[in-house]
Amino acid sequence: MNNNINLLDFKSKINTTRSDTKQRNLRIIAISLLFIVSVFSAIILILVALSPLPQLKKQQKIASFNLSLAQADIIKLALVKDRVSSIKLILDKRRYYDRTLETLQSKLPSGVVIENISIKQNNMSFTLSSNSLLLLDNFLNTITNPDESGKEYSNIVLNKLGNKESENNFSLDISMKTL
Amino acid sequence: MSKNVFFGQNDLRFWYFRYKESNYYSWSILIATIVACAIIIFVVIIPQAENYFSIRSEVVALRSKINVMNENVNFMNNVDRSVLNSQLETATKALPAEQDFLLIINALNDSAISSGITLDDFDFNLDKGAVTKSQSSINIVIITNGSIDRVRQFLKEISQKLPISEISSIENSSNSTIINLGFDYKSLPKIVFNEEKPITSLTGLDQALINKLSSWQTTNNQPVTTPSGSSSAVPLFE
């Protein structure tokens, strides 16, 4: 029999205190969670409500409308760019035969004339005539020994050297590649 | 008559009065609160937060888009319409959208007159000369009469006339020259304007090229004067 003056069992009191502590902790957790939920809900509600998205969409519509007013000019500009880029490509790969002829003529000594000439891509063949072999020789020396401007021709082939005794005229057939 | 409003109402009351003063009641309320909060966090707050962040990134993207669009509007407002029109005119004259025989014949005629050569015959070849899918070329064979110097002058003149041409070969013998040249043309592309892409102006090089082409065009439009040394020159159509 229990002779203690306390009718309640001491052990069960300890258990009750522990239970209270646990409950208090749990209450704190519950209140914290409630607080967090309410605060986050409020924050998100405010953030979403204050989002500038609808206003920005309105601005986008206005800008789009303004651009649509200038659409004709935008297309014109795009067309100019397209044409210019194509023209650039054409001009870049263009061959200037007038310059090729000019360069060749500049190398001809006076007294040497071009009888005929054919230029296709970078292949050039021509016939020169002169009444002096020395002049033709000078020309050959000029084209085979490049000056300071650098090498202008390659694959120089002397096809034929002819002589018309009756006219005292020498002819020279040459083919070469322009660089 | 039974006053039960719903099934188990008396059971719930019973359980409530049975446990309301006990620890179980407060425990169950706390646990229910925690569980409800957890559910709200995972089901509502986290998705809403994700939604907010996606809205924010959309706002950032939209802002930059609007900036680009506004810059485009400003750019287009500052573009000189008359200059743009003249640039387009020059560019389309230089590289027409379709075969323009009148321009070609004008260019040939002007070059022939300026260089003092005679165009004996010419032949348009329309079958050959597809450069690319959208770009094609009209090949022309010209037979000219004139010295090498005049032919050279003709080649120089034609290279500075619109529409732009490419000479593929020349063959000269005894004062007669056969010139193969092509005039390119390119169909207009389908322009798809993207509002979000910034519009850029022509580069300095492009501008210089347009100016050069424009000067060729101006030369083309100037009144043609026959050089003094070419009294024998015969115009293309006489």
Summary keywords:
heterodimer, A: 179 residues, alpha+beta, Gyrase A, domain 2, four-stranded antiparallel β-sheet, rod-shaped, B: 238 residues, 4 strands, disordered C terminus
Give your account of this protein's structure.
The complex is a heterodimer of chains A (179) and B (238). Chain A has helices at residues 10-49, 53-69, 71-93, 97-107, 133-144; strands spanning 112-120, 123-130, 153-164, 169-178. Chain A has a 4-stranded antiparallel β-sheet with strand order 1-2-4-3. Among the domains of chain A are: 53-93; 97-178, General secretion pathway protein M, EpsM (Gyrase A, domain 2, 2-Layer Sandwich), CATH 3.30.1360.100. Helix content of chain A is 58%, strand content 22%. The longest helix of chain A has 40 residues, at 10-49. Chain A is built from 5 helices and 4 strands, in the order ααααββαββ. Chain B has 238 residues and is an alpha+beta fold. Chain B has 2 domains: 8-78; 82-221, Alpha-Beta Plaits, CATH 3.30.70. Chain B has a 4-stranded antiparallel β-sheet with strand order 1-2-4-3, with helices on one face.
